[in-house]
Amino acid sequence: MGLHIIVCIKSVITKAPENGIVRSADTAALNPFDRPALEVAISMAEKQGGTVTAVSMGPPSCAFILNEAMAMGADRGILLSDPRLADSDTLATSTALAAAIKKLAPFDLVLFGTRTYDSDTGQVGPQTAVLLDAPLVTGVSGFEFIDTRLRVDRTIDGFGEEYELSLPAALTINPSAAAPRDLLLRGIEESFTGKEIEILALDDLGIDPRTVGNSGSPTRVLSLTRVTRERKCEFLTGTMDEQAEELVEFIKKSGLIG
Amino acid sequence: MNTLLTEKNRAVRRSVRAFCEREITPIAGEIDREARFPWEVVEMMGKLGYFGIQVPKTLGGAGMDTLSYVITIEEISRVCASLGLCATVHNSVVVYPLLAFGTEEQKERWVPQLARAEKIGAFCLTEPNAGSDAAGIEATAIRSGDHFVVNANKVFVTNGGVADICLLFVKTDPNAGHRGISVVVAERGTPGFVVGDVEDLCGMRANPVSSIRLYDCSIPAHNLLGQEGRGLQIGLTALDTGRIGIAAQAVGIAQAALEESGQYANQRQQFGVSIGRHQSVQSMLATMATQVEAARLMVYRAAILRDQGKPFSQAAAMAKLYASEISSTVTDMAVQIHGAYGYSKAYAVERYYRDARVTRIYEGTSEIHRMVIARGVLDEYK
């Protein structure tokens, strides 16, 4: 039996009018930061042998991102969809995802993108790993299997780090890890016409409704306003030396150099 | 966005657009200037299935519907009309007639390689003295034992410079008028098969349009496609489907011109405001957007009718006529909105303007399309 790799993916909002979000197929898309995670999972399963399950949470109108994941090469697509999941924050989302992943056990790896194109918190991967009690490395860009253990690399603050994990483990995948493959038209045809997305509701997951949705979300987004950046141009005067001096002072004050 | 589309169709659009913008947009201007056929990209397109969109999976294709096909052509043409042309001709007037009229042996022999773009197809009908009047062709294929001796001078062959498998319209019975026309499949490399110089055209310059000539070329009799004497019917059937593809191509070019113009009108300042604030520019943008949308709906409707197995000839002819004509209008307006920059090779709109022009000429001129449509109207109200 090969690896079972679960990839958690999100439909992100690509177009949002100022007065609110309407999530539909025209305004949502597969989170671009999840594509490298899918690519890593699919190529790992191709190389090592195994299967890839893509999991997402959202309304049925966003199930198409799971079809896209299957068009890329995922074997199964699972959508957690229940009206009681609406308004979930990152913790409630992680609670639901962790419940689904436990239901899909046994698994060897759970992969996430590092962040999302819309809300950009980067919290769901790490929180889900904690709820699964699985070892986690974030921002992973390289992998190597050594017997039953996995060695991974990440680059952070100019340092390269190497970790060894026992499986099952959770990883968030740095976009530099793999260039996502283009979809074959044949893959699209097969995934949209021949494969069913499995939909799981709260009752299927055995989740207490109070731990998800609005009631299970300790955080609230209070407001969202567009930040307008004011640009202004300052002219330095004096001799070349004075201008240079003044420029250095300015850069120092801005905290750009020490 | 378009309500006619399914999730699958939208996924096709997204993935084809992402590929084209990444791989083709950066070279589209350069391959036009250099009149270069970008094999490196065509190879990738072949692997992704863009050259066998409606070919059954058993023959190595993607097995998709016509609507997905037109979206693919529209998206390729939005970034590079020359490659859109290459793909539409290959898919609709070469691969499709092979599937529709070929024997099982012929399909097995040619279609899988064509579907993967390992071989490129061409449709060879036009001659120096025969274009709109297809029955006026002079090419001949005279039966001699188990082969035909073919003599032909085919001109303005799309993909001609790179084509391996050519559907060649010939007279197998020169005395039988249009009933003497047949189609034989001629393969490049056959002795006597000569590829002429690539034409120096106004637009579609990355497509190696050339002449193809056959001099006493011996073609096996089993390369005859469909029945002898039914060539004109094969051609017309292929062109019915081909028209939807050319219409999609025209929509793609017009869409690109609309997008560039919208961005430019927001950006370009004159009289202290963006030119998009001027009523005359707004009027052009409104006309362009409306025409593009109307043409797109006509193309999608023709494709949907074909997918539903309903008669679609008239809808396809109308879509091709309208889309090709508005493509000229829209790209002309795009040049106008860009002013002198639009006339410069530094901006893409001049390429769109040149590329759009020929969509009114090939795979049936606007004049022939009006004749076909009018015939349908007169028949309907007889």
Biggest beta-sheet profile of chain B: 4 strands, mixed
CATH-level-2 architecture of chain A: 3-Layer(aba) Sandwich
CATH class category of the largest domain in chain B: Mainly Alpha
SSE string of chain A, helices as H and strands as E: EEEHEHEHEHEEEEHEHH
Low-pLDDT residue intervals, each spanning 5 or more residues of chain A: none
Total strand segments of chain B: 10
Largest sheet features of chain A:
9 strands, mixed
Read across the widest sheet of chain A, the strand sequence of neighbours is 9-8-7-10-6-1-4-5-11
- Number of strand segments of chain A: 11
Molecular shape of chain B: globular
Q: What is the CATH-assigned architecture of the largest domain in chain B? A: Up-down Bundle
CATH homolog superfamily of the largest domain in chain B: Butyryl-CoA Dehydrogenase, subunit A, domain 3
Radius of gyration of chain A: 22 Å
- For this structure, the quaternary state is heterodimer
- Number of spatially distinct domains of chain A: 1
CATH class descriptor name of chain A: Alpha Beta
Q: Can you tell me the number of structural domains of chain B?
A: 3
Per DSSP, what share of the residues of chain B sits in E-state strands of 2 or more residues? 5-15%
> Approximately how much beta-strand content do the residues of chain A carry?
25-35%
Write the topology of this structure:
The complex is a heterodimer of chains A (258) and B (382).
Chain A lengths: L2 E6 L2 E3 L14 E3 L4 H14 L1 E8 L6 H9 L3 E5 L9 H14 L5 E5 L10 H9 L3 E11 L2 E8 L2 E8 L2 E5 L11 H9 L4 E3 L1 H4 L34 H14 L5
Parallel strand pairs in A: 1-4, 1-6, 4-5, 5-11, 6-10, 7-10
Antiparallel strand pairs in A: 2-3, 7-8, 8-9
Helix pairs in contact in A: 2-5, 3-4
Chain B lengths: L6 H17 L1 H10 L4 H10 L17 H14 L1 H21 L2 H12 L5 E4 L15 E5 L2 E11 L7 E7 L9 E7 L5 E6 L11 E11 L3 E2 L5 H37 L1 E2 L2 E2 L4 H29 L5 H26 L10 H9 L8 H15 L2
Parallel strand pairs in B: 1-4
Antiparallel strand pairs in B: 2-3, 3-7, 4-5, 5-8, 6-7, 9-10
Helix pairs in contact in B: 1-4, 4-5, 4-7, 4-8, 5-6, 5-7, 7-8, 7-9, 7-10, 8-9, 9-10, 9-11
